[in-house]
Fold these 2 entries.
Entry 1:
Amino acid sequence: MAAPPPRLERLVLALIPPLAREVVAGDLCETFENPRQYAAEALRTVPFVIASQMRRHLNMPALLLKLSLWWLFLGWAALWLLPVLMLADAYQPAARPDAHRAIRQTVALGVMAMIAVVNLSMNIGFMLQTGLRRPEWLALSLFGLVVPALLCGVRTVLILQNDRHLPLPDTVSGAELMDAYRRFAWRARLHNIAEGAALVAAAVLALLWLGRSGAAVLTGLYLMTAVYLLARGAPRPLPTAGDFRFLQTRYARALARQHRLRHFLWWLWCAPAMMAAAARMHEKPLVAAASAAALALVCFVLAAINREDGGRVQEDIGALERLTG
Amino acid sequence: MAESLGQFEQIVLTAVLALDANAYGVTIHAKVEELSRPRKVTRGAVYATLDRMEDKGLIASWLSEPTKERGGRSRRHYRLEKPGQQALRESARTAQRLFDVIAQNLGLKGRA
């Protein structure tokens, strides 16, 4: 049986967004005639697939919120980030990262940070003697060496935590799938009620304590989101009629929708911290550097949480799509 | 009221309907090319339309078992959902009315 040359196939696989990779690459492989035809077909197909994945995974509220926050730091240059953010959504991973690899990376980064910190602290005396005027910068450098290892640790904890999540079995009956959907819908409803109430409380606190124009915008956004969460946030109840495939589709869509909501909410919760960091960016260089470091930390943690959560949801959707009733 | 469909969406939905249990990327693309002759259609356009119609709830999809001829990868199978059937019926009625008027005025033979 003719198959595409491995190198060419690897190149094409890298271009196809992960969530469509299996199906599109499979179709290209099935219609393979010769490398030239394969490459031409891939070139004609992949741009449509990328555009479709960008449209499918466009989380408009989260995208607007991210752009607004970046606008605080970069001004109108933040608009250049728009295609990058959209492509990042289109190329979101189809599975969660490997826990063992994450642990290895954390250990390696931790050892490297430790060596660097020990090396730096052994030479502090020499550096101070030779004219280091601002020891704060030294402290910030030490902090900068330790932070990547800490962040990597945070990411590993998140991955290990999600490893405890139980996937769906390979075969389930319609009634079992319906039960699983109802349990998921119930948990999502409770989660939305709790988060909606927390958003209302945060909105009131922001208005009472901060009382600035930025806080008013944030309060409005928090209240609007709380109303949406409480009124429309829960997964739709199942209709009385509907076969196994219908149930699978409904479940998969509800999972994807709840993930989009959570993605937006994580950014919304961290918006005050990012706004505070943005407000300090024009102060003294040391304060600005510390604010930039705090901003990088917040962005990294948010991205790690959303990537982890997104990977888990995509694994669940994949398992649902492979289920046989 | 049924979802209104564009011409290409009508063709893709008709292909899914005609192929029944054998509707997946490669076969749908071949059927769409056959239905929209002499126009050439890229497979990517078919994927994008299938994704859009799935998001609208007109079709549903699931993955098959991996096969050797596809390099150990699964096929994504599609089927028409009730809103899709309704939308396609509505489009067929509109096309029939158009055909009748054109046939009456330009003297085309046969019925759509």
Note: The mean pLDDT of chain B is 90.
Entry 2:
Amino acid sequence: MKVLVCIGHVPDTTSKINFANNDTEFDSNGIQYVINPHDEFTLARAMFLKEKQGASLTVVNVGPSTTETTLRKSLAIGADNAIRINAEPKDSLFVAQQIAKVAKDGAYDLVMAGKESIDYNGGMVPGLMASILGVPFVNAVVGVDVDGDKISVTREIDGGKETVSATLPVVIAGQKGLVKEEELRIPNMRGIMMARKKPLTVVEPDGDFTMTEFVKFEKPEVKSACKMVSADNVGELIDLLHNEAKAI
Amino acid sequence: MSVLIYAESWNGKFKKTSFEAISYGVDLASKMDSEAIALTINAESVEELYKYGVAKVISVKNDSLKSFATNSFAGVVKEVADSISAHTIVMLASSNVNSFAPSLSIEWDASLATGVIAEPASFEPFTVNRKVFSNKAHADVVLSKENKVLVVAQNSFGVIENEVSGSSEEFNVSPSDGNVSVESTEMASGKVNLMDAEIVVSAGRGMKSGDNWAMIEEMADLLGAGTACSKPVSDIGWRSHEEHVGQTGKNIAPNLYFAIGISGAIQHVAGVNSSKVIVAINTDEEAPIFKAADYGIVGDAFKVVPELIEKIRTLKG
């Protein structure tokens, strides 16, 4: 079984977000980049497919050479090889087209991604890829079992869970819950040493399709000061919520 | 030309989000000099939608659409959009909409924007404002294709009542077979769905132990609220990960959000700061949650929450 895991290179969750160039682009000054958290869950689950079912694991991303640190980290966690598509990720459709081509050319059985990136939050790339490839797609996945060419996938739905089955190849988008928190992988020294020798292939993008363009960024307005209520007069809070905020 | 609005239902009943979709789509259509037309799939009382200003409803009834697959839903919405020469499709975010919107945009050759929080700021070029960086920022995005699919974030536009007299027609579709088979569905029973909740009572490490959640649940019950928690609480396993709200958990936007014993790390605030009113209860007056909150009490949750429960009980009579 060949598994392709998409790895986003995103600002650490603690990052303060700023914009540059008259608010037209993200200010990467002083930003630490990490594997997209949803992709971390997916990669950890993919590692079980490798360790328990002998799957081969390729990680892929679309980005300039600066994103290779994140791919190397994924190799240190245990992926077998990496592919970097050498382009600025212009929008979700562009990224999806590029990765779909790699997935098709490499005849991958299972393409796994996080359900969204924590930077642009489109939540579109996995579904776009599946549609471009013409294969089934399951979103917000919290459970996966592969048996031969059959896959059983549990997804979160509004207010519950649903389990579906399909025939490979399939694209799934994972999230928190796909593995337990303690099953997330942290690269160890041996992994980091081995990662240096693993193949990281750079391929050039194919085509230039986009559907959207980010033109301006802004930060939400800062809230006005918090109205404090004394802990000795809790009833006042309920009065305020009822009469002033009309929220209860 | 028309704007097609997808009004989502579950087991035949409209989801609350479908009314917000209609409200948004009707207003958008009038600004674009277009007709607003709603689409329902296996919904029962389609006339409920007239209350929100849509006068024409296309009702699809088809047994094979009773279980969800992205390809069959995308195909049907595209078929209806083409039949009425729609230029824009409006949907409200939900688990199923988020799942099939990308496929719809490919099949219909449309530009797709998700996390939309306002009506287009301009039509030439077609520009919408959406959430980015997990709600730490917003962005103006230009949709370059002629066809557009907008997925609007929940509670960003609101529900607007505007009763009209309307009519509905049944529309026959021939959906392609779903490319996944639903094996089982398991709904959480007796709990308010966090994504639909008007009020959310959320608690953090300040609760000291997972055994101390009875008062949080009691308060939520009294308010008809959903319960949520911070990331550390779900990581430790005091509460299930489904309750985790924040940057890497659920992003919620209720009317009223209680953050109890939650310090308010930037990742937490990102997931909840679309809430209309935020109440923070924390022993530490320096806790960053007070910067995000509208109302605050510096105090011990174990003393404050039981008193709140009493006051709410009195209020609710």
Note: The first strand of chain B starts at residue 2 and ends at 7.
